[in-house]
Amino acid sequence: MRIVFAASECVPFAKTGGLADVAGALPAKVVRLGHKVTVYLPLYSRVRSLLGEPSYALRSVTVPFRYYNRFAGIVDGGIRAGVQYYFVECPELFDRPELYGPAGGDYPDNAERFAFFCRAVLEATKILGVPDVFHVHDWQTGMIPVYLKTVYSADPVLSHAASVITIHNIAYQGAFPPVTTEDLLLPWEVFTMDRVEQFDCFNFLKGGSVFADMLTTVSRKYAEEIQTPEFGWGLEGVVSGRAARLRGILNGVDYDQWNPATDRLIAANYTPQDLTGKRACRRDLLTAFGLDQVADTTPVIGIVSRLASQKGFDLVSHLGEELIARDAAFAVLGTGEPAIEGFFRSWAERYPDRVSVRIRYDDALAHKIEAGADIFLMPSRYEPCGLNQIYSLKYGTVPVVHATGGLDDTIDEWNPSNRTGSGFKFAVYDPAALLGAIDRSLATFKNKIAWQILMRNGMEHNFSWETAAAEYVKVYEEAVELAGTPE
Ligand code: ADP
Ligand code: GLC
After folding, report:
1. Where in the chain are the domains?
2. Considering only Cβ atoms within 10 Å of each terminal Cβ, which end of the chain, N or C, has fewer?
3. Considering only CA atoms, which of 452, 424, 428 is closest in space to residue 437?
4. By alpha-carbon position, which residue is closest to atom 18 of ligand 1?
């Protein structure tokens, strides 16, 4: 099969979150199963500086809008691990410092930027190769299924292509004013409640979810959750209406990047059989965070996260003093919403010998935390999959998580009587329940033998992409079979 991936971020080119890890790892695994995969990404300024002098596959692809045309260059990124990369160039839209907007916000022309990207990809494939399946991700590429089933439905080549949309996070929908319909040259008949209209907005994710042939999301639990009002952010009706075509496929981990036995970004390597290196990693982490005075018997709790309300740090700020009353130190890395950044900064200022915070994006430091911390904290209000808790398992850093979405699917509660389980989780989203889980982890930490068993239980888990890639291939086959058939 031929598959085109269209994504707004992808490791190693441009990343703000887990979508980039997925788009970076999955294509090569699908190639290994015998398929041909091409990845399209916008050519952001940071990608331009990585690529150097562009080599064009196509000089000019026309994308019409209501009052003007825009033109895309298609830059050939070459083949890596069997995957062909193309970058969609349009300096006016993509040569900007951020992917989506300043400080967690949005650029005002994001509808145009990502609709342009989608349509440029479709036009480019007509020359460079139309796939059997377009695999699109989140709202930014949600217009591909919409275009395929509307303005391109009579196109002799594109009309045969199927599409699959993966919802990585249903809370981000790409909602724009109704006039977007005309700006994108779509017929007004798509602006209805059963198509792209949602609360009088033109909604990219809704459009993608309505028009794609198959839908996936990134864990089984989240596939169930998004069909409920609590987690569906208004799209629960759309998703549950298409439940027969929805699959929950847990993300894998790229163990070439995240493995304490081989990781070059950490102070010492270690394995489940020989954990001695982890001690050096802990010392290195404490030095990097200016926490050298922390006693060997005090557990270090790590956090690496986008600082968004999704991630549950309101619970941590609620517990601020109570947590300080415990014997634990905190190493926090993240950027995002100013209020959450502000809470962590002031917490660290008040308790400098116990809490240290780095407000930035820093991949090397993320690896140091995964390796050097004893406990990894992820109290997310909701979490479609979550990758950091899975990295933590591999690094013997015991996760404490809220039992939601992928966090619930990947972490089993430690059972001290039969010594099974890989972490600690709390069911009800409230501060007392989080504190309960943290207290269970701190109590277990004191028992060296139990703790080592718990660490090893996690380290022996394998969330490889091979399994997930095989499930995606099944979904592609279903999409091809179902394309155009009524539900
Ligand atoms: P989400 O996609 O919702 O942000 P995930 O857990 O799926 O959550 O993925 C987050 C990814 O982003 C991980 O690879 C994590 O290491 C990385 N990450 C998040 N914030 C930072 C940061 N400040 N510095 C380095 N890496 C970060
Ligand atoms: C989203 C989700 C996260 C998931 C990632 C990759 O950003 O918030 O839970 O792991 O996508 O699928």
Report:
1. 2-252+466-482, 276-461
2. C
3. 424
4. 305
Give the residue, out of 100, 289, 303, 304, with the most ligand 1 atoms within 8 A of its beta carbon, to mutate for a pocket test: 304
Query: Is the Cβ–Cβ distance between 8 and 204 less than 8 Å?
Result: no
- What CATH fold (topology level) applies to the domain 2-252+466-482? Rossmann fold (3.40.50)
Atom of ligand 1 nearest to the CA of 15: 12
Q: If you measure from the C-alpha of residue 389 to the centroid of ligand 1, how many angstroms do you get, rounded to a whole number?
A: 10
Structure tokens at 48: 């331009």
- Name the pTM for this structure: 0.96
- List Cβ neighbours of 77 (8 Å cut-off, separation of 6 or more): 13, 41, 51, 84, 85, 86, 87
Q: Taking the domain 276-461, which CATH number applies?
A: 3.40.50.2000
Instruction: Please work out whether the CB of residue 306 comes within 6 Å of at least one atom of ligand 1.
Output: yes
Q: Could you tell me the CA-to-CA distances from 225 to 212, 236, 251 in Å, in that order?
A: 20, 9, 17
Which atom of ligand 1 has the smallest separation from the CA of 311? 3
Number of CB atoms found within 10 A of residue 9's CB: 24
262 C-alpha vs ligand 1 centroid, how far in Å? 20
Write the pLDDT tens digit of every residue in 75-133.
Answer: 999 999 999 999 999 999 999 999 999 877 899 999 999 999 999 999 999 999 999 99
